[in-house]
């Protein structure tokens, strides 16, 4: 009897130290059987149901809408690289825009409403900005203006006389005074008003206020002309491959080509010679 008791105790001890497993009956009934001989490898959780303990698996459920942190990080990095690429591309594109020269003189502009505040509004044909490839420079063959008050008075008087003579506006696109300031006449968006000058739809006409037949304009006027050209390119109103011209009378081209105004312009990079006009 003593030997039989030891055999039963050893058998019970062996079962208690074996892994927790399911019996086939317990699988159907849904509770643990500590006496089963099969090994259960899935973690289980005890839940109480009607006084009995049921086993519940601890497997995690996968959310199909959940974004993995690594994938999210890769998407953010890709967007950052794309943004950097766009910025570099825009910067390289801006570098391709040619500047005719380094400009140290700032650009000063007095717009038309600042000097002409009368009811008659500007009415002129629209300029095809994408086709603007020429700049014609000529002098006004008038008195100089060395301050803004005199320059504004000159523009107002010229506007009145043009309107009284032919019901038209001042013919220049811009004028540059001896004060080193650019004055808007017809501007970048309208055709010039010189019927005897070519390329009305492809040309900006700039007048240097004063008579520069025997003397050159002041250096500040030349510097402002450079600043005006650079600003026109920056505004996409003038092609970087523009052509710079002077204007001469068709009846005396050799005489007009020697006026002092053009002695410096002829050395500029984009100078392409003279265009003839029928009137002085």
Automatic annotation (TrEMBL):
Please name the SUPFAM superfamilies in this protein's record: N-acetylmuramoyl-L-alanine amidase-like
Q: Which GO terms describe its molecular function?
A: N-acetylmuramoyl-L-alanine amidase activity; zinc ion binding
UniProt KW Transport keyword: no
Q: PANTHER family, from UniProt?
A: PEPTIDOGLYCAN RECOGNITION PROTEIN, PEPTIDOGLYCAN-RECOGNITION PROTEIN LD
Which family does the similarity line name?
Answer: Belongs to the N-acetylmuramoyl-L-alanine amidase 2 family.
* Domain Peptidoglycan recognition protein family residues, every copy: 107-249
One annotated GO biological process: innate immune response
Which InterPro entries does the record associate with it? Amidase/PGRP_sf, Amidase_domain, PGRP, PGRP_domain_met/bac
Record key words, sorted: Immunity, Innate immunity, Membrane, Transmembrane, Transmembrane helix
The regions listed as transmembrane in this protein's record are: 70-94
Task: Recite the lineage of the species.
Answer: Eukaryota, Metazoa, Ecdysozoa, Arthropoda, Hexapoda
* Signal peptide feature range: none
Name of this chain's protein = Peptidoglycan recognition protein family domain-containing protein
């Amino acid at each position: 009897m003593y030997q039989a008791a030891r055999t039963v105790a050893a058998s019970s001890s062996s079962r208690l130290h074996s892994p927790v497993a399911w019996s086939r009956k317990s699988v159907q009934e849904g509770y643990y059987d500590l006496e089963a001989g099969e090994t259960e490898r899935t973690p289980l959780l005890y839940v109480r149901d009607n006084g009995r303990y049921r086993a519940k698996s601890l497997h995690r459920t996968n959310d199909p809408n959940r974004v993995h942190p690594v994938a999210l990080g890769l998407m953010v990095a890709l967007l950052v690289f794309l943004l950097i690429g766009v910025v570099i591309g825009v910067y390289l594109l801006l570098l391709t825009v040619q500047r005719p020269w380094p400009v140290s003189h700032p650009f000063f502009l007095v717009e038309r409403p600042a000097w002409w505040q009368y009811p008659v509004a500007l009415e002129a044909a629209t300029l095809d900005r994408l086709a603007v490839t020429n700049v014609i420079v000529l002098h006004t063959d008038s008195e100089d203006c060395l301050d803004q008050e005199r320059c504004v008075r000159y523009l107002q008087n010229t506007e009145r006389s043009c309107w009284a003579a032919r019901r038209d506006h001042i013919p220049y696109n811009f004028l540059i005074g001896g004060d080193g300031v650019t004055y808007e006449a017809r501007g970048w968006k309208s055709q010039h008003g010189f019927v005897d000058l070519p390329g009305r739809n492809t040309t900006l006409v700039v007048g240097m206020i004063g008579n520069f037949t025997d003397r050159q304009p002041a250096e500040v006027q030349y510097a402002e002309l450079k600043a005006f050209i650079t600003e026109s390119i920056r505004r996409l109103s003038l092609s970087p491959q523009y052509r710079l011209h002077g204007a001469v009378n068709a009846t005396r081209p050799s005489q007009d080509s020697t006026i002092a105004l053009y002695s410096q312009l002829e050395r500029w990079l984009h100078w392409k010679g003279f265009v003839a006009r029928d009137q002085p």
